[in-house]
Amino acid sequence: MSEPHVLIAGGGIGGLALALTLHQVGVRATVFEAVGEMRPLGVGINLQPNAVRELIDLGIGTEVLDTVGLPALEWALVGLNGAEIHAEPRGLDAGYRWPQYAVHRGRFHMALHRAAQERLGAGAIRTGCRVTGYETRETGVTALVETADGGQKRVDGTLLIGADGIHSAIRAQMHPGQPPIHWGGAIMWRGTTRARPIRTGSSFVGLGTHRHRMVIYPISRPGADGLAEINWIAELTVDPGEGWERTGWFRPVETADFVHHFAAFRYDWLDVPALISGAQIAYENPMIDRDPVPTWVDGPVALMGDAAHAMYPTGSNGASQAIVDARVIGAKMLAHGVTPAALAAYDAELCRPVSELVLRNRGAGPFGLLDLVDQRCGGAFDDIDAVIPAAERAAFMAGYKAAAGFAVERLNAAPPTIPPGARIGPAD
């Protein structure tokens, strides 16, 4: 009997986390990545404690995460008048057994890439190779691969995992009648600026309303000058009736093109226009997701990450969920072997709750509190308790954490997704 071989379409965060997980449990994996060269692209992302737990169990510990970001200490929402709506500790300070990290997406991706190359060998990650489709067979699956020079290859494997993002070719074949990418009218401008951290020094701050807001948090520790790399996202919702005309994802723009939308966001503790204008470069893209599909699996083929559940970044859990996906797939293979049954078990556990999370994030996710304040008082207030009582605020946040899979008591009590030392294949 031939050795099981898992093919992974896409070498992003989810695909590499899966490759590392499969190596950990003794399963051969090959990653096919469309780009010709891996580069540290993107700006800031958050890794929730449920994902950090999995990374630590995977051998990507705090010594690595500290080189690409820093632990988040606080999550806070602030009204249009600069007054606090809700604040709570995060990570270890919130009672979790694992920290939450704010990291530079590109540098974190490259850390995963280096780990995968070291553990699996460079030949296991094939760049310049795009999986364009698949054919299922009685004993496995064939991936249809397009190479950078325009060539076509057929690669046989036991299973195929589509980790190929929001524009997934695997998903398009699995669900040919799916609706187009969904855009609700929100435009995001993203960038980083060297500036002094606010509040705790490592706070995630949401400011404004659901339709007009800023998200601000550091992704590096301060240097000798007291300045850190501050990630910011400026968001504005417009009339979506005409559709999104620009096609570029992370399209470079001048800050002067949009900073006027946030001219009023000036307070004694924060000057948003100055923060935006201090960036060397900014990127514009629509806030988009996809409608959930009823299943992520077609026999020996499964979707994961954005290919399965692209979601609005309102809950800071897109990358975290991709990492969790990878670990659950590995756990199901430990239970069911490298078989379609493992993929069916993964689908049964995650498809429905994560699809519900996609729709929850579309409805503003944890930023829904900003919406409530806007509805009840226009975003400005003297006493937040008179607008939204503390108990209502706490219940709102607890409900989101439970839906997103990082309620503190449940996560702390959960056994490891991959038991230490568990393997399918032979030991190294």
What does the model show?
This protein is 32% helix and 28% strand. The chain is an alpha+beta fold and 428 residues long. It has a domain at 5-71 and 101-180 and 291-364: FAD/NAD(P)-binding domain (3-Layer(bba) Sandwich), CATH 3.50.50. The strands form five sheets. An eight-stranded mixed β-sheet has the order 6-5-14-15-16-13-20-17. The chain has a six-stranded mixed β-sheet with strand order 8-2-1-12-22-21. It has a three-stranded antiparallel β-sheet with strand order 3-7-4. Strand 18 (266-267) and strand 19 form a beta hairpin. Helix 2 (49-57) packs across helix 8 and helix 3 (62-68) crosses helix 4. The longest helix has 23 residues, at 340-362. It is globular. The mean pLDDT is 91.
Short description:
The protein has 428 residues and is an alpha+beta fold.
Helical stretch tally: 13
DSSP strand content: 25-35%
Helix content: 25-40%
Low-confidence stretches: none
The N- and C-terminal alpha carbons lie at a distance of 20 Å
CATH level 4 superfamily of the domain at 5-71 and 101-180 and 291-364: FAD/NAD(P)-binding domain
Which fold name is given in CATH as the topology of the domain at 5-71 and 101-180 and 291-364? FAD/NAD(P)-binding domain
**Which whole number gives the mean pLDDT?**
91
What is the CATH architecture annotation of the domain at 5-71 and 101-180 and 291-364? 3-Layer(bba) Sandwich
The strands making up the biggest β-sheet line up spatially as 6-5-14-15-16-13-20-17
The dominant shape is: globular
- Tell me the number of strands: 22
> How would you sum up the major sheet?
8 strands, mixed
What Rg do the Cα atoms give?
A: 22 Å
Identify the quaternary structure here. Answer: single chain
CATH class of the domain at 5-71 and 101-180 and 291-364: Alpha Beta
Structural class: alpha+beta
